[in-house]
Design brief:
This protein is mainly α. The protein has one domain. 50% of the residues lie in helices and 4% in strands.
Length: 98
C-alpha cells in the first residue's frame, strides 16, 4: 500500500473510522491525533505528568474506555479495549515500500 498525501501514517479506512467514531472531522492531520493517542496508550503503565495535553488525553481515553484507573485518572493503565485499538492501529500503519 502506498502513502496517500492526506493520510501519512495509517490506512485511510482506519483513519476515517477512528475519526467518525469519535465525532472528529478528517481535515487537517488526523494521523497526528491517532499517533498521539497510540503513544499515550502504549505508555499507560506509568503515572502521567500533568501537562495540559496529557490531562486532556487522560480524560479522553478514560471516557472512551481506552484506559482504566483506580483512585485517579492520572495513574490510569491501558484497558483491553485500549490495547485492542493499539493493535488495530499497528495493523493499519502504512509501511514504506522498499
Amino acid at each position: 500500500m502506498t502513502k496517500d498525501k492526506d493520510f501519512l501514517g495509517y490506512d485511510e479506512d482506519f483513519v476515517n473510522k477512528f475519526m467518525e467514531h469519535h465525532g472528529f472531522c478528517v481535515c487537517g492531520n488526523p494521523d497526528e491525533l491517532i499517533r498521539q493517542v497510540m503513544n499515550y496508550l502504549e505508555k499507560r503503565e506509568h503515572p502521567i505528568k500533568t501537562s495540559d495535553d496529557e490531562i486532556l488525553m487522560a480524560y479522553f481515553c478514560d471516557r472512551e474506555g481506552y484506559t482504566e484507573h483506580g483512585t485517579s485518572v492520572y495513574s490510569a493503565w491501558t484497558s483491553e479495549k485500549g490495547w485492542g485499538l493499539v493493535e488495530q492501529a499497528k495493523l493499519a500503519e502504512i509501511k514504506e515500500e522498499e
